Every structure is written in C-alpha cells, then in structure tokens.
Amino acid sequence: MTGLVLKLGPKERVLVNGAVIENGDRRARLNIVSPEANILRLRDAIHPEEVNTPVRRVCYIAQLVLSGDADPDEAKMQLLRGIEQLSQVLSDRDSRSILAKATSHVLDNKHYQALKEMRGLLPREARLLAAHS
Length: 133
Prior knowledge:
By secondary structure, the chain is of the alpha+beta class. It has helices spanning 54-67, 72-89, 93-107, 111-119, 122-131; strands spanning 4-8, 13-16, 19-22, 28-32, 39-41. It contains five helices and five strands.
C-alpha cells in the first residue's frame, strides 16, 4: 500500500483536511491513502510567534496550506521564493539536496513532503544562527 503512514502516540492530535483528530489511549498507525489529503501533526506545528527565522517562515507557509489557511497556488510562489533565497545561503551539499527535494515537492503540490524536508533544515539553521550570535 502506498501513501502516508502516520504513527500516533496516545492522545496525539493530527489535522486532516482541516479537522482535528485525536488518537485514543493506545498507539495507533494510520495509512492515509488519499494522495490529496492535507495532514499536519499538531505536535510538529509551528506557532505564529515562532516564525522568526527564514527556514521557519518557509515551513510555516507549507503548514498554512496543510491547515487550509492558505491557497496552495498563492503559497507555491512564496514557498519557491523562500527556498530559492535559502539556497543562496545554505550552499553545502546536504542542504542543497534537501532544498531540491522540497522544491520538487512544492512543484508537485506535495506540501506535507515539502514541510517534512524543510524541517530537516531547522537544526542546521539553529547551529548557524547560534554561531553568528
């Protein structure tokens, strides 16, 4: 079976196409087979006051699409512009690979996958910002 596999802990919440779903008392595994479903783990959500770095801004835009709070077509240009700007600063091979994958996912309207890729840059960005402060 293809699609997204969500492994949820007890009482973990997830947003699926705008509806908040809470898991029961035991761990659960869900197979999301609808390719166009918008999924966001609420534990992974970035809150508006936390959008204070370039990578977090790009992640937040993708998150807004997944939550239904942003139009995917309008967000696409913002996401691509943000990724392009990051590629001018994050020039190492690993970062370039992540940014290329994220770009591909945005172009394919796979916002969850784009967000997942971009989240991989958060630790690197934190290290760079800590080194310059």
